[in-house]
Fold:
Amino acid sequence: MQTTHKSWLLDPGEHVCWQVRSPQEYAAGERQLIEHTAHSADRLLIVGVPAQKTNGSGRVSVLYPAHEAYPDGQSGAVLQAIHGRVDAARREGHVLRVLAAMEHVAPPHVPLDELVGHEMELAELAAQSGTSVVCAYRQQMWEPNLLGDLAAVHSRVVGTQPRTAGFRLNRADAGGWTLDGSVGFESLRAFTAALRGALARTPRVQLRCEMLDLIDASALRALVETVGQSPGGSVVLDGVNETVLRAWRMSGYDATGAAVEVCA
Structure:
């Protein structure tokens, strides 16, 4: 589907996955985002090569890693540079929106875990700074199943809807994440990657599960195993429904001393 103007009415702290079908769609979406920024008090940072001239207005700036001595494989340096630009704008009293063409943040061939780690850092940046971050994935560059898995760690998806993992794990605030939807066998790759990403950021992961419908036996096993592989790590599933609580108790993991706590 085509991106509409309504798609770019971004709330503070949003972390959006934009699935882009074509260069023309990217150019149109970039133009709309620039227009919306121009009618607000915000500024916009474009990571990558802009599809059009930015007119030197001062409201739009560009971070082009290839021109700023960030060689391939130094995704951390690019993320650090994005943090620096957002922090500098805040010190000047501005909110800096971010539009990141993700092939300039990480090469499309990197493993899912690495990409999820980058996305969780961007989600945390959005949550802590109040900015909005749009992560643009040009579909011809990325493997379709990968895009579906990555959608699970964004607050929403704009553009062509990919096959999704069935759940969503989002940064709520400095105190934890929300886990929504259903987690089953078909979503284990995305679920374990998201858990590892969260555990890499903090040893004790608090998941708010008021909107979690179901987590099946295979996902519970993956949860326990993933936490067990993280030295000193633990996970709390808080606010689960009766179905999830019953499944956890029937699994037997509660009696094994696993570093996972499930509570209503």
Remarks:
- The CA atoms of residues 120 and 146 lie 15 Å apart.
